[in-house]
Design brief:
The structure holds two protein chains of two kinds. Chain A is mainly alpha-helical. Chain A has a domain at 267-482. Chain A has 20 helices and two strands. In chain A, helix 1 (5-19) packs antiparallel against helix 2 (23-46) and helix 9 packs across helix 13. The longest helix of chain A has 32 residues, at 318-349. The mean pLDDT of chain A is 92. By secondary structure, chain B is mostly helical. Chain B has a domain at 275-495. Helices cover 74% and strands 2% of the residues of chain B. Chain B has helices at 7-22, 27-55, 79-103, 109-127, 132-150, 156-185, 200-203, 207-224, 233-236, 242-269, 271-274, 278-300, 304-323, 328-359, 375-389, 395-410, 413-441, 449-453, 460-478, 480-491, and strands at 62-66, 72-75. In chain B, strands 1-2 form a two-stranded antiparallel ribbon. In chain B, helix 3 (79-103) runs antiparallel to helix 10 (242-269) and helix 4 (109-127) packs antiparallel against helix 5. Chain B is globular and about 75 Å long. Chain B starts with 6 loop residues before the first helix and ends with a helix. The chains are: A mainly alpha, B mainly alpha. At the A-B interface, strand 1, helix 5 and helix 6 of A face helix 16, helix 17 and helix 20 of B.
Chain lengths: 482, 495
Amino acid sequence: MLLILPILIPVIGGIFVFRQKNEQIRNRMVLCIAGVTAALAVLLCLLPEQTVELMTIQGALRLSLQNDGLAKFFMALVALIWLPVAVFSFPYLKHAGGERKFLSIYTMTQGILMGLAMARNFITMYMFFEMMSMLTMPLVLHNGTPAARRAGFQYLGYSVFGAGMALAGFFVLAYYEALPDFVAGGILNPILASQHRELLLAVWFLMVVGFGAKAGMMPMQSWLPAAHPVAPAPASAVLSGVITKGGVLAIIRVTYYMFGPKFLAGSWAQKALICLALCTVFVGSMLALREQQFKKRLAYSTVSQVSYVLFGLLLLTADGVKGALLQMVFHALAKDTLFLAAGAIILSTNFSRVDQLRGIGRRMPVTTWCFTLAALSLIGIPPMSGFVSKWYLASAALESSISWVGAAGVAVLILSALLTAGYLLPIVADGFFPGADFIAEIKEVGRGMTVPMLIFAVLAMALGIFPGLLLRPVEALCGLIF
Amino acid sequence: MHHILALPILFPILAGAVMLILRPAGRRHRNLFLMASVLLTTAFSLTGILLSYRLGGDALTCVLVSFSTWLSISLKIDGLSMVYGTIVAVLWPLITVYSILYMEHEGQENRFFGFWLISFGVVNGIAFSQDFLSMYFFYELMTLSTLPLVMHAMDEKAQYAGRKYLVYSISGASFAFIGIVFLLNYSSSLDFTYGGILDAAKTVGAENTLLVVFICAFFGFGVKAAIFPFHGWLPDASVAPTPVSALLHAVAVVKAGAFAVARLIYYGFGADFLRGTYAQTVVMTATIVTIIYGSARALRTPHLKRRLAFSTVSNLSYILFSLTLMTPGGLAGGLTHMVYHAVIKITLFACAGAIIVKAGREYVYELEGMGSRMPVVFGAFTVSSLALIGLPPLGGFAGKWMIAEAAVDTGESLAYLGIAALILSTLLTTLYLMTVIVRGYFPVGQLDMEALETIHDPGRMMTVPLALLTALGVVLALCSNTIIHFLQMVSLGIV
């Protein structure tokens, strides 16, 4: 029963948030609900595994929840991100407008994400995945411009079609399942599966590409650069930071909890998907370099960086998964800092292009410092956390049994790091060193916006200096899978 | 005792005739008479179904008219009848309440409700027929009794729609009749029998002819089920008053077409006779094409009711595709989607009707910002849309799941193509329904606030049925395990 609470409380709470017209009470409500849900998530992380059956759709097809290791990991991530971004959104939305709609949907989304994490089988996960897509579309649409509406429908279309591809794969897969629910290591009936290996590999490929649309993997990534410029900054932060990781979670479940690494290792499908992931890493960084629109540049950066996670997962080794999970968390922290900073900058100066950001470090020092720390983490410079995750990914790549993955993987990772530096450091440099003729007054945004940024930036650094905090649970999780 | 089967058919026909002849002038009297007749008919229908379930269908057969030793109009309720009969019996009263308030805006209620009652009886006749001839008789009668309903407005568009409906339906039924004649020739009786009625001894050497005849009959009955390329009458028929579109063209008439196809395949020619033949390939391909065609046209249609009509075209072919799999799983999948789609689509049409009546707006691009003005209507539309898109655990998903599982079980590559069509259609459905919802709740651009201020939810006689229908859809979805279990028993011939 406890498992249902972190889902129900935000969803029902969101309705009350919508009806609350008084701004102060409403903001407190949002914080309260986010806090309670986070506390429940932490509680569930500490408790042993439990299951809850919600309903039976037909026969063996059931909707049920379980807080297993991966669920706890994802719930903790969501809980970590949700509260600070909510705090940021209060002053931001005061400026942008439409607080009630945004905050109510924002609150409800947290509940759905908890459900996605705790889904015990594919259909439950698919249900929460679709709910998540439907519910987050209004966040993209929020500004109410025709471009926002187009971007919203592009987002919805790609998400639904991707999930549909995965569902089609599931329809075929259901026959080969020995067990109905997710089990670490895979649930395929080994005799049946080995008889139809080619078909099942094709199904896996389809499912990963389908869910990969949500994670911004090529070829279905173009919704990301369309959605971010038009969405409000807190929406971009959770979209890049957490929602894309929802797609990653789905891929982890399909790969490690349905098919199992032993069945997939060394196959053509794995090699093809690794190629796709590496391509996305490279092309994403290249497009970010060329992009002059500030938020769109960060969007391409997300496309690239989330595929680091996918690359790690597709290596199908324990070290790969370790690197991937670490990158999941560290990227969320860094990218959210970047988007919150971008939001603060756009709000304060109305500048949306990168070349307009000269001297921003003088105008908004705290914001730019947070941006700098996050940028260093994203590039992968020690002691920031991004370095730790990329190190693990690189060493996992080198250990891979597939011949070319080591060289190709490391090459792409290094290249991408250079490109990342190329598209983030100039902003920092021009920001702090605009030239002698630049006169600027300090016009920093309020504490409501800087404190969340600082929290994420400091965490990004702290987890880099003390990675052990995160490494232990991650290693425990890997132990379960392999 | 067995004459109780005649009641759900003869009683409403008589009541409708009475209304047409006597033409009650007072609104209250007419509405009371109408509701009483409809509720009584539902009661008779459900009683017959329950009795047949308890005692077994064979215990209650009833011969209405006997022409010769083999040819008669007779009634019997078997498993398939129970499914279709219950859908009709449950939904008819709800939409009648809705239509009472709706038709005040259209006028000519006596004529409308007279034929409305007659149609109820005729549809029950199709559901409870014991053999092909009876079903054909009521099938033709249904075209005639629903024609005045389609043409109700009597303006140019309505007359054109009526003529098109008539021509398509009568032509289709003629081709179906060819099938019935051949069935009679190659079997010993026309009574519906699970597994088929063809006599193996007689059909030797004539298989090819029979397959061609089957294809004719499939498309013949398929006209009413809006199969491509004979779907054209359905979008044009959306000029009819919304209760007609909702009940008849989303539930009774079009599901009668699907029902007839199910009878043709599983209780007529026999799934075993047809499986694996080129006939199956032809009909399955037609259904797959229709699935995509319907959804694609729906996306491109700005008129809301026409959009829903194309959506019906597509969803009916989900059912037909499942039926053409020619396995018990296929029949179960088709029946599952028949049940859930009926409730969902009737709700969607009812919402569209409410918008037309209250705001006079028929096109999707006119709906900006109306979500907050008509909360009940748009709320019902949203829930039903999510159900049609296939969000678990709502109804549309259960249908897709059963159909997909049946398709995978056959192992044929064409069936896999059907699954791909279902997924593509899901995407298109999401897009063509979410545009309405998004425009309603998240308007873009300048809103005409003065015009919007005048718009409200319709009166209780329309919102209560809407709410009940939505709730019914959700409750049925939550009970999907029980319902699908029953449908599986029907598909195996056990019930």
